[in-house]
Amino acid sequence: MGPDPYDRNCPTRQLLDRIGDQWTVLIVGALSGGPLRFTELGRRVDGISQKVLTQTLRSLVRDGILTRTAYPTIPPKVEYELTALGRNLSEPLDMLDRWARQHMSLVQEARDAYDAEHTPASA
C-alpha cells in the first residue's frame, strides 16, 4: 500500500499540511517572480510576523522547496529562491490563487446570505 495522506502518521500528510499552510502559499507565490530578501518577503506577505516568516522559510528550505543563499557582505545579505521543486509547486498554488480571485465575489455573496439567515435580528 502506498502513501495515504488521510493517515495522520503518513509523511504525505505532513507535506500537505506544509503546502496548505496560509504562509507557505503566500511565500511561494511571492517568490514565483524571482528571489527576494527576508525583509522584502516580510513586506510582501503582509501580516506575517518575523518569527513565523523565519520558521516557515526554514521549513521550506528543509523540504527542498526553497534555497537560502547568504552573501558575505556587510551587512549580511540573504536571499530566498524557489528550487525546481518549488517552481513546480507554484503552478498548482497559482491555480488556487486564480480560483480565489475569480470566485471571491461568489464566496462573499454566500457568506452574506448565510450571515443574514443565521444572525439573530436586533431588537
From TrEMBL:
Pfam families: HxlR. Residues 10-108 form the HTH hxlR-type domain. Keywords: DNA-binding, Transcription, Transcription regulation. The keyword Transcription regulation applies. PANTHER family: TRANSCRIPTIONAL REGULATOR, MARR FAMILY, TRANSCRIPTIONAL REGULATORY PROTEIN. This is Winged helix-turn-helix transcriptional regulator.
